[in-house]
Amino acid sequence: MPTEKTVEHADGTVERTTTTEGQRVIVERRGGGMGGVIALVIGLLLVAVVGYFLLNMSQNKQIESNAIAGAAESVGEAADNVGEAARSVTPAN
C-alpha cells in the first residue's frame, strides 16, 4: 500500500512524496507560480518594445514618402519654369 507525504514550503512550493513497499520513491514538486508571473511580464515588455519599433518604422516611411512627394513637386515646378522661359525667348534673326 502506498504512503503519501505532502510538504508545503515557505516559498509556496508543494512537494509530494509517494512511497510504495519494494518500489521506487516518486517525488512531485509544484512551484508557487512566481516564474510564470515573471515570464508574463517579460513577454508583455517584449510585445511593447516590438510594437514601438513597428510604429516608429511606419512613421519613418510616411516621412520618407512625404519627402519624395515634395521633391517630385519641386522638380515639376522647375520643369514648368524652364518651359515658360523657353516660350518667352524670341528667336534671333
UniProtKB/TrEMBL annotation:
Residues 1-14 have a biased composition (Basic and acidic residues). The chain crosses the membrane at residues 34-55. Residues 1-20 are annotated as: Disordered. Keywords: Membrane, Transmembrane, Transmembrane helix. The keyword Transmembrane applies. This is Uncharacterized protein. It comes from Brevundimonas faecalis. The lineage of its organism: Bacteria, Pseudomonadati, Pseudomonadota, Alphaproteobacteria, Caulobacterales.
